[in-house]
Amino acid sequence: MIALLGNLSRDVLPGQAARPGGAPYHGARALRHLRIPAEIHARCAVADRASLYAPLVHLGTPARYVPGTATAGFEFSYDGDERRMRVTSVGDTWRATDLPALDGSVRWVHVAPLLRSDFPAETLARLARGRRILFDGQGLVRVPRVGDLELDDAYDPAVLRHVWALKLADEEAAVLGDLHALQVREVLVTHGSRGVTLYVDGRVEEVAAFPVDGDPTGAGDAFCVGYAAARDAGHPPLSAARRAVALVAEVLAGE
Fold first, then answer.
1. What value, to the nearest 5°, has the Cα angle with vertex 16 and ends 12 and 21?
2. Structural contact between residues 108 and 83, judged by C-beta atoms closer than 8 angstroms
3. What's 229's domain CATH number?
4. Nearest CA among 224, 222, 182 for reference residue 199
5. What confidence score (pLDDT) does residue 40 get?
6. Is the model's pLDDT at 55 over the cut of 60?
7. What is the mean pLDDT of the chain?
8. What's the pLDDT score for residue 81?
9. How many domains does the chain have?
10. What string of H, E and C letters represents the secondary structure of 138-165?
């Protein structure tokens, strides 16, 4: 069984109304395509629960609302695989005392920060007890400040002590530099329509993507859900990455 924890966000694309975002929502979109046991724990301000959490619940995966005081917000647009983002608001920080009780059968947890302030090291330490964490590298490099999205490498190295697998987008990997120096067992770098590079056990493996026309929002979250689910089912990293890529194509092709 897998679990997913993260902040919901209010996302705005050019010419469109605000819509739910964040890994809890997009992960739930992906889980509709998988017949696996899973649970989602999602957070936003209480005032935004109806507009952001309710649509997540309607996607069908068992979910729990974690009350918050702030809701993350983003404005973004795409030019092919290139994404431009602006932070309009910063969401809550998950302290160890904020963590919900997870089902005892959960073995993999996808921790899905939107910004570096979302999940500090002490929170990951609590989550990692008896479980493996797949961490989205946004939580290492995204500066938690309103304005044009900034990336830097001023993260707390203690965070990675509790991470089993790390997912990075191209631009995040570029900020971090030598990925082998991170000393994370499994590192996955997503390249949008160009596929994924897997770093594990001193080897580098390439996985091709399935070209799909459509809105790529949520592709990284779908990949993480697919990878965690496959690893939880016993697949080795390369096989899990291939299954995750296939899931992304299925999700982006349409609900």
1. 35
2. no
3. 3.40.1190.20
4. 182
5. 98
6. yes
7. 94
8. 60
9. 1
10. HHHHECCCCEECCECCCCCHHHHHHCCE
